[in-house]
Write a structure and sequence with these properties.
The complex is a heterodimer. By secondary structure, chain A is mainly beta. Helices cover about 0% and strands about 50% of the residues of chain A. Chain A contains no helices and twelve strands. In chain A, the strands form three sheets. In chain A, strands 2, 5, 6, 10, 11 and 12 form a six-stranded mixed beta sheet that branches. In chain A, strands 3-9-8-7 form a four-stranded antiparallel beta sheet, with no helix packed on it. In chain A, a hairpin with a 2-residue loop joins β7 and β8. In chain B, β4 and β5 form a beta hairpin. The radius of gyration of chain B is 13 Å and the shape is globular. By secondary structure, chain B is mostly beta strands. In chain B, the strands form two sheets. In chain B, strands 2, 4, 5, 6, 9, 10 and 11 form a seven-stranded mixed beta sheet that branches. A four-stranded antiparallel beta sheet of chain B has the order 1-3-8-7, with no helix packed on it. Classes of the chains: A mainly beta, B mainly beta. Chains A and B meet through β5, β6, β10 and β11 of A and β4, β5 and β10 of B.
Chain lengths: ~110, ~120
């Protein structure tokens, strides 16, 4: 079946540190891949997406590359800010009209 | 409105009560989804509508859960005879059209606590 595996959190970083949150997936066919972010007290927001292999999604300094050979979609940011503290969800969409989410990774950034 | 709205934002119910959760999708969005998010977990799919047609209800956990979207816009998720295990955040999402690359836009959720 379709599934997403994310690294366990929380990830604790100091401001301006480099961020990587790992995401791997199992899917039939050719899924689209997404990163959603949930800030405290707010709903899920789309951060970035990639719809085919080797595509790179990017937004707000975050990047992720769709790697079919390693079935991965790792989220990276070169220099995190305190305001990036949130829960990050990796998700896939296979065309059966539903998103399949990972369990989420909490990021805590300290000044 | 500009985004997906949900009401109420918080609901406390006694075990055995019926509850109704409302979702107002983005105007003109064809697809509407309901997800359930347990504490510390990712959202899990419940059901999907394309306009007024409920095309997939495979994620509904039991026959106590019922969803409708009679006019193809507002949707209601109803839970009958609530149980403690129903406590979760219920998320609604909409997308403009069905499609593998289409972005789903989420509402703030309704946090349900069953005592």
């Amino acid at each position: 079946g379709n599934s997403v595996t994310q690294m366990e959190g929380p990830v604790t970083l100091s401001e301006e540190a480099f961020l990587t949150i790992n995401c791997t997936y199992t899917a039939t066919g050719y899924p689209s891949l997404f990163w959603y972010v949930q800030y405290p007290g707010e709903g899920l927001q789309l951060l970035l997406k990639a719809t085919k292999a080797d595509d790179k999604g990017s937004n707000k300094g975050f990047e992720a590359t769709y790697r079919k050979e390693t079935t991965s979609f790792h989220l990276e940011k070169g220099s995190v800010q305190v305001s990036d503290s949130a829960v990050y969800f990796c998700a896939l969409y296979t065309g059966f009209q539903k998103l399949v989410f990972g369990t989420g990774t909490r990021l805590l950034v300290s000044p | 409105g500009a985004g997906v709205s949900q009401s109420p934002r918080y609901k406390v119910a006694k075990r055995g009560q019926d509850v109704a959760l409302r979702c107002d999708p983005i105007s003109g969005h064809v697809s509407l989804f309901w997800y359930q998010q347990a504490l510390g977990q990712g959202p899990e799919f419940l059901t999907y509508f394309q306009n007024e047609a409920q095309l997939d209800k495979s994620g509904l956990p039991s026959d106590r859960f019922f969803a409708e979207r009679p006019e193809g816009s507002v949707s209601t998720l109803k839970i009958q005879r609530t149980q403690q295990e129903d406590s979760a955040v219920y998320l609604c999402a909409s997308s403009l059209v069905p499609g593998i690359g289409e972005t789903q836009y989420f509402g703030p959720g309704t946090r349900l606590l069953v005592l």
